Amino acid sequence: MTMEQSDRLDRLHGVLKSVSEPAAYVGGELYEVKKDKANVKVRFAFVFPEIYSIGMSNLGMRILYECLNAAPDIWCERVFAPAPDMGEKMQEYGIPVTALESGDPLTDFDIVGVTLQYEMCYPTALHVFDLAGLPLFSRDRGEEYPIIVGGGPCTYNAEPVADFFDVFSIGEGEDALVELSHLYRDMKEAGNYTKEAFLHAAAKLPGFYVPSLYAVSYNADGTIEKFTPKYDDIPMKIVKRIIGNLDDAPYPLKPVIPYSETVHDRIVLELYRGCIRGCRFCQAGMVYRPIREKTPEKLSEQARCLYENTGYDEISLISLSTSDYSKIDELTDKLLSWTDRENVSLSLPSLRVDSFTKELMDRISGVRRGGITFAPEAGTQRLRDVINKNVREEDLLRAVGIAYSAGKESVKLYFMQGLPTETHEDLAGIAKLASDAVHVFYETPKEQRGRNVRVTVSVSCFVPKPFTAFQWEGQDPLEVLQEKQLYLKDQITDRKVVYHYHDAKVSRVEAVLARGDRRLAPALVFAAREGSAYSAWSEHFDYDKWMEYFARTGVNPAFYANRTFGLDEVLPWDLIDCGVTKEYLKREREKAYAEKTTPSCAEHCNGCGADRLGGNTRWCPKKK
Amino acid sequence: MVSEEKVNRPCDNTPIRLRFRFRKVGRLRYISHLELVRTVSKAATRAKIPCWFTQGFNPVPKIVFGTPMSVGMESECELMELRLTERIDPADALERLNHATPAELTFLEAYYPDNKLTDQCSAEYEIIVRTDKDAEKLAASFRALLADPGLTCRNLTHGKASERVVGRQTGNAKVEVTGKNGLRLTMTLGTSQGEFLNPDYVMIALDQQTRFLDGSPLENTYLIRRLAALDKDGKPFR
Questions:
Q1: Model ipTM?
Q2: Which residue, among A340, A378, A516, has the nearest Cα to A459 in the 3D structure?
Q3: Overall pTM surpassing 0.90 (yes/no)
């Protein structure tokens, strides 16, 4: 620790002593990257607008920390939002938000990167800007301030926060953020850096969207008329960046290891990106295409290395649908050859019922017990066909049976309500399916099953998201969503079934932000400054306050959340090209209303358009 | 399922205990006891130390710590013992463990002990006070209060009225003024069962009498540092 850091700590000591998790504000963990400020050309602060224990679990942040720090002339440091108790003390005593590695305030940095993982974190990000002394609006930050770049899944429609950011990195950031940093370095060294010149140059790099260089005009009915570029030489479609070969991409083998327990305290292996399924409500399944898999050899090597470096006793195999990984058996064989011996267990989140087998169950039931989760998403076959979930009731009951016969006593089922075309019959179907899942337990031979059973039904509300087949659909009005939640509650009579549902009010605000445009910015400023900075936390979410922010800034929330957007309307996210085409999404929408399913990419190429982005895709070549 | 290799209990019933002394200063002062246990447990795995694993459903390396400290305190003399499946060279274990832990967590010494951790009786503390009030005046009131055997810390738990007489142990305390805004207190307090006294309680008692922490916590605070572990004769405990 340097003298400077030690002085800062001593000054902060009285405050840190009295907050709930002081370790979250001091850094110093194993594998944090330290560099000499004097020897780097670009200082990059990576902000995760959530508290430390949540942010430290994020794989994307770990990957980008690795990539940026691999460049000798870039020093990337971590920044998290303070928990509310610390945030209050910072405001009271004028303590700025600082980066964990150096302890320096964000105003000392060249580039501040902010990952936008979830719409409800927008006010948290602005709260961090405030605590860091950064003016919120991009236009108010002069040459003396760092460049603020946004990234992450929300940038597929970042229009609600467009006025706060200088630039957005669209798609995968491994190469892109290093390129952006080096553009900054080169312009500084050449002496031709101005914020305006830099942003103009960045807008010409592939995958960078500079919102201030596109003016938006609106029609009389409030819809967008057009985007007008400020320069002739910047693209009208910003195509997202992807990593072609994941085996060759940098992967964090020495992730920073927190002292405290974080949300996902384990080794994380990313099997592949993209998804072969085409669920019509799912944004991740579209925007991460094309599918690119890592080889079992590479994964097994990385797992062993991570185990040696971290000492964690659990390996989580993650992707959008882990059992769809084409070499799952080969991979688990390789891992099991040493994990059992070392008391390391495997966990597989995101399992699909149709590709879930007894063999796979046996492989993961090793050291630890616990529940198992499946996501049928809808209660009837008709509605599952509408959303293209491609899961049959018999598949689900078979999968649940396998889990029971391996001794599992707790099954969790995820559903969504408020889906397009949903009726009360579909909701009643959820109750019936849960009840059927309970019965399977009693049909499982006594010597195989556990003693008791519990089926948890967890129901969220449908939120229309950009770049899905349902991006044009209006969300059910709040009263309808709430009425449906209570109706389902009445339908569930089985005492072995536990019913959880999400707050429909959160989903409504989420829908406003998900399909919002630049006119939401003033409301977000109110949210950040008038008590809703931590809206992603249910205990800090206040719906009435949000409605007040909207009312005070002339925003009609129904215009964004509940209105069915016109198929020919200019959408706020039309400047972004995520690979999947609008034509494909329109076709999928038509098939939804016709209750027709679309086969997975493994069976047939449906022409989504993502294959033109390239990459060593496993499934797409079948098209030829 | 616990595999064969991990169930390798030592062949006789005497556990092999390797004791480590480590320093917990700087940023590490904010690491809680539980976080430290997790950190050392994973570090021992990384360092490939032949730890004996607990025999429960979730086997973990067996680690025993000496007197724990509250979050925010520093120490030069923390003690912990790892239970091993075989005797290894202490110097080698020390090096490997230091290699597998964050830079600021330094293990200073490793040895096979001939006594128990519970044989430690007391600890010597240093408390650095930062204040924006008159340091000389504050020192005088501290001296008087610490010399009073009846000095009591009140309202220790939220809501419930509870108190602890701390003055019985603070007779040995010394207070010196270190410049315009600082004081340095030293005292020896009990650590054995029944006699354990958290130095924070002493400081809370002093604050309840003098309100020396009033004002901004950036200017008014104190830092507790444990300097030495002592045995029943007041000699360094090893």
A1: 0.87
A2: A378
A3: yes
